[in-house]
């Protein structure tokens, strides 16, 4: 699969005379392959919007290399812009225009056939309300209109910054199925988000950013597997045997933690090696289950943003990429 979006070593420091300097991107890398729905995840202030704005030529980077649809940007932006649809942060519309007026205006300016306006209104679920003024729309309806405007030119690559913002659960589900349909039709979709449960359901692959650097990337299942710790929960017929079972497993080379009524066993290739080790000492397993992790746990671990009781985490208080144990090693694509 060719990459449709490629970023290497992107750097951006905001400089202001009054507020000093703020490093937003610190050698950031990202690769998105064609036909994927790709989740771009990171805590508030980690550099998602800065990345997307830089890609689209709205911010000048301090260094790094970027490609869209196989062409270097920003130099090739005039050539590729017609094949890239994007919404970065909340777009503004004329409040007195209806959705149809808004899209017709944009279609006229962009050489898009008028029939496409009705198509995209239908796609985003705004058909029934298309004649009402935008100022009477809810946040979620404005969000749908924004997606419709990005879809007008039937782009090869669709980039959406926080498309689920303001949508209700039904709207999020519709957005999800729309993204999937678009990917099936051959479009590549990149969406930034911090609604992780949604991303896990919708995305083929993800990039996780923390403090302006990539901390994980790859197919969702791979990222989950790499960071699940590969653990198994093990219960025994007799709970009293847990400590001795733990000793045996540690001797066999597994990392083992004793909990109240089970063991957590990590660092084994196959669960069969657990049962074999224990059975050799007449210890019998009554339950053995892989510990499943979700994207949210991986995200919290990698970005160092898991809540700590009694503390109010401030933005920018994340794990420094490359300095905490599990984030080392530069998993990449
Ligand atoms: N125009 C600006 N001037 C100065 N600093 C900025 C500017 N824009 C962004 N920043 C800073 O750069 C960092 C990255 O911001 P960015 O908007 O890219 O984060 P984000 O990942 O999109 O966050 P969110 O999830 O809150 O949208 C933040 O610390 C932010 O304060
Ligand atoms: Mg943002």
From TrEMBL:
The keyword Nucleotide-binding applies. Residues 310-333 are annotated as: Disordered. Pfam families: ABC_tran. The lineage of its organism: Bacteria, Bacillati, Actinomycetota, Actinomycetes, Micromonosporales. Signal peptide: none annotated. Keywords: ATP-binding, Nucleotide-binding, Transport. This is ABC transporter ATP-binding protein. It comes from the Bacteria. One of its GO terms (molecular function) is ATP binding.
């Amino acid at each position: 699969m060719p990459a449709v979006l490629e970023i290497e070593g992107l750097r951006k420091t905001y400089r202001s005379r009054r507020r000093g300097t703020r490093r937003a991107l610190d050698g950031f890398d990202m690769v998105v392959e064609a036909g994927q729905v790709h989740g771009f995840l990171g805590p508030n202030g980690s550099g998602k919007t800065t990345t997307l704005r830089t890609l689209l030529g709205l911010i000048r980077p301090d260094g790094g290399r970027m490609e869209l649809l196989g062409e270097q940007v920003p130099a090739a932006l005039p050539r590729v812009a017609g094949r890239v649809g994007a919404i970065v942060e909340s777009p503004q519309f004329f409040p007195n225009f209806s959705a149809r007026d808004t899209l017709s205006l944009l279609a006229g300016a962009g050489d898009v056939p008028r029939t496409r306006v009705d198509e995209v209104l239908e796609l985003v679920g705004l058909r029934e309300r298309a004649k009402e003024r935008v100022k009477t729309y809810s946040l979620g309806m404005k969000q749908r209109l924004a997606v419709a405007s990005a879809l007008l030119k039937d782009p090869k690559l669709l980039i959406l910054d926080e498309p689920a913002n303001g949508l209700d659960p039904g709207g999020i589900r519709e957005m999800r199925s729309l993204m999937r349909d678009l990917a099936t039709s051959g479009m590549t979709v990149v969406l930034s988000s911090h609604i992780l449960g949604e991303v896990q359901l919708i995305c083929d692959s993800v990039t996780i950013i923390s403090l302006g650097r990539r901390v994980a990337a790859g197919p969702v299942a791979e990222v989950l597997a790499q960071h699940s710790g590969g653990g198994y929960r093990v219960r025994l017929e007799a709970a009293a045997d847990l400590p001795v079972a733990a000793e045996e497993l540690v001797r066999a080379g597994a990392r083992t933690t004793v909990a109240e009524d089970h063991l957590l066993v990590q660092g084994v290739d196959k669960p069969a090696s657990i049962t074999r080790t224990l059975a050799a000492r007449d210890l019998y397993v009554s339950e053995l289950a892989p510990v499943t992790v979700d994207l949210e746990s991986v995200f919290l671990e990698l970005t160092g943003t898991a809540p700590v009781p009694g503390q109010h985490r401030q933005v920018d208080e994340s794990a420094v990429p490359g300095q905490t144990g599990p984030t080392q090693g530069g998993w990449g694509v």
